[in-house]
Design goal:
Number of helices: 9
Radius of gyration: 44 Å
Order of helices and strands: EHHEEEHEEHEHEHHHH
């Protein structure tokens, strides 16, 4: 039977279901691939009580995990720092939050004289894809090696090592797309955005029969169904939609502005290139004019020298007793030019 449930990618819906201990244990057990027998939400000062420019919902858990060590079954506390975002987010924001957790004195084991911290696992539920990683869920686990690259078997459980390193789980929600190959993917299938119903993202359509044999998943679905019918929850989702619409409008405006600036930059670059070419042409023309001016100056100097020579010749001939008419015949100058030179 097809049912309609609230979309848990919304912060308000996600917080609503994760504050239910049974659902938190179900999801965290699947993520850790270990039995979580008890979980509590840890109070912190970084929750999204107010919106910022990029939504990043954070919630911290102290999970009691039951593990087998040799022939013994032991319970130990693991801190889980879960961060969820719809949008591409700078990794610095994740690192800053993790840094705050490393610096938080409340994360030190009680009655531990050496100040060792609880082991920590960072979980990222992302509403976007991470590069070329095709797997919807990836585990980034640290190991301890000796100089030769051999794993030190007992290194990971050493409190000193656990206090300074952490493992990570990255979930790419857009890559879920109906794929159910294991327990974790079955649980995370309620986040699959290919099940969005209608024009709004607020509601998912789920085939309830696929989970009929799983009491924990049926409980999750009933909780999400109740959230979809809750008027306050729907109002909270409307607020989130308005917030993300404002971000999309802002990002669209930024993209359009960047496109216009890029086009203007290209135009300015072309104009600059044209001006550079014109400047080069003007420089060449200026050089040519300079050369022509130099040639004219040389010619003018030559004419001046020739004129001076003619004047001296005319004076010399006149001094020798020749008349202006005779000088004109000898030099080819007009009588008026000779008279002017002899003045």
């Amino acid at each position: 039977m097809i049912i309609h449930v609230a979309n848990p990618i919304y912060d308000s819906v996600f917080k609503y279901i994760m504050e239910d201990e049974r659902i938190a244990k179900t999801i965290l057990s699947a993520l850790l691939k270990k039995e979580v027998v008890h979980v509590t939400v840890r109070p912190h000062e970084y929750s999204n009580t107010t919106r910022d420019t990029l939504s990043m919902f954070r919630i911290d858990f102290a999970a009691t995990v039951r593990e087998k060590e040799g022939n013994e079954i032991k319970d130990r506390i693991v801190l889980i720092e879960l961060q969820k975002t719809w949008l591409n987010t700078e990794t610095l924001r994740f690192r800053q939050y993790l840094g705050a957790q490393y610096n938080n004195k409340n994360n030190i084991r009680e009655a531990d004289e050496k100040g060792f911290a609880y082991p920590m696992v960072a979980v990222y539920l992302l509403g976007h894809k991470v590069g070329n990683i095709k797997e919807p869920i990836v585990y980034v686990n640290h190991d301890v090696f000796d100089y030769n690259g051999n794993v030190v078997a007992e290194g990971n459980a050493e409190p000193f090592v656990e206090s300074l390193t952490h493992n990570s789980i990255i979930v790419q929600i857009p890559r879920l797309q109906g794929n159910v190959n294991n327990r974790l993917e079955k649980i995370l299938s309620v986040f699959d955005q290919t099940n969005v119903e209608g024009d709004t993202q607020q509601v998912l359509k789920i085939d309830e029969d696929k989970y009929a044999d799983d009491n924990d998943m049926m409980y999750v679905l009933h909780k999400l169904t109740a959230a979809a019918a809750n008027s306050e929850m729907r109002q909270d989702m409307n607020v989130e939609d308005e917030f993300y619409k404002a971000i999309e409008d802002r990002d669209t405006a930024i993209m359009q502005r960047d496109k216009i600036l890029k086009e203007q930059s290209e135009q300015l670059s072309q104009q600059s290139e044209q001006l550079s070419q014109q400047s080069e042409q003007i420089s060449q023309q200026s050089e040519q004019l300079s050369q022509q001016s130099e040639q004219i100056s040389q010619q003018s100097e030559q004419i001046s020298q020739q004129s001076e020579q003619l004047k001296n010749m005319a004076k010399a001939l006149s001094a020798s007793g020749l008349s202006n008419e005779q000088i004109s015949q000898m030099t080819g100058m007009s009588i008026a030019e000779i008279a002017h030179l002899l003045e």
